[in-house]
Amino acid sequence: MALTEAQPLVSIITPVYNGAAYLDSLIQSVLQQDYPRIEHIVIDDGSTDDGATAAVLQRYPHLRWWSRPNRGQYATLNEGLAAAQGAVVSLINADDEYVVPSAISAALAHWKAHPQADCVYGRLLYIDATGAPRLAQTHLAGPWPPAWLKYLCFIAHSSLFVSRELLLDRQLWFDSTLCCTGDWDWLIRLAEAGGRFSFVDRPLSRYRLQADQMTQTRASRIMAEEREICRRYGVSYHFHRALSGLASLHDAAWLGWAVLRWGGPAALVRRVAAWRARRLALRRLAR
Question: Of the candidates 163, 281, 151, which has an alpha carbon nearest to the alpha carbon of residue 216?
């Protein structure tokens, strides 16, 4: 999709549920962008935090925001897509951030240089709960064939910018029956609908890694949904799990090297022990 305007409006869509803790940081990361034409849509998906999320939103009169009863993350994203007015849309969660100040202008400049693209995506950076960058940055985004998305999701939606025209023409809405893996399913359908992807080799967003709060119900739901997505698109679930395992090993190796380099052997031993404890806990939950 060639961008017909010199500076097309970019619609940023954020679903939020009990997200007061990090919502300010996200909104500020949007305000600090040097791109001049942005609308930021934030939908409060029935937060139950005694008005804390709404109180944050009320401090920013430039936002398009509203609250309503809880419908789930993917139904909320669909609502935001339907309300968006921009030629370009981007989706970002309330606890993540854009790289400032030039993430959006960099994505749009790349799009201008590659006018055949329908979607532009970049890398992401991992940060911790305080916003500090992780020692090792191991996100596997790259200029890979879009057909590979059905085997492993290598695009972060917070670092993706998409033609709204394409989404509307092909009716590419999120599957609101999914709870945890709807972004992966949506990206596969975006590729299978003929979306032309272009990769910009720089970080565009920051993804916040938080303490694992996985419950047995959620762990089982993720595995069930991954199996369903593999079935939908004719992919071996075991092959998908093998690729996911290799990606996890890549992440663990680079992170281990970084911890050893900066913290020494004792820090590495502590990190490995914590990792083993989390893995054992997740295996118990998934049974």
Answer: 281
Residues 6+ apart with CB under 8 A from 280: none
Whole-angstrom distance, CA of residue 180 vs CA of residue 73? 9
Residue 211 has pLDDT above 90, yes or no: no
Q: What is the pLDDT of residues 115-137, one digit of tens each?
A: 999 999 999 988 888 888 775 56
Give the pair of three-digit tokens for residue 284: 């118990």
Give the chain's radius of gyration (CA, Å): 19
Name the residue range of residue 241's domain. 212-287
Asked if 90 contacts 168 with a C-beta cutoff of 8 angstroms, the reply is no
**pLDDT tens figures, 242-283:** 988 887 777 777 666 666 677 788 876 776 677 677 666 656
Q: How many CB atoms are closer than 10 A to CB 170?
A: 15
pTM, rounded to two decimals:
0.87
User: In angstroms, rounded to a whole number, what is the distance separating the alpha carbons of residues 42 and 90?
Assistant: 12
Residues 33 and 244: their CA atoms lie apart, in Å, by: 34
Q: How many CA atoms lie within 13 A of 236 on its CB side?
A: 5
Q: How many domains does the chain have?
A: 2
Q: Sorting pLDDT into bands at 50, 70 and 90, what band is 220?
A: confident
* Residue 116 DSSP class: T
Q: Which two tokens stand for residue 159?
A: 């670092």
Q: Which of 10, 195, 204 lies closest to 118, judged by CA?
A: 195
CATH number of the domain within which 105 lies: 3.90.550.10
Q: Residue 200: what residue type?
A: V
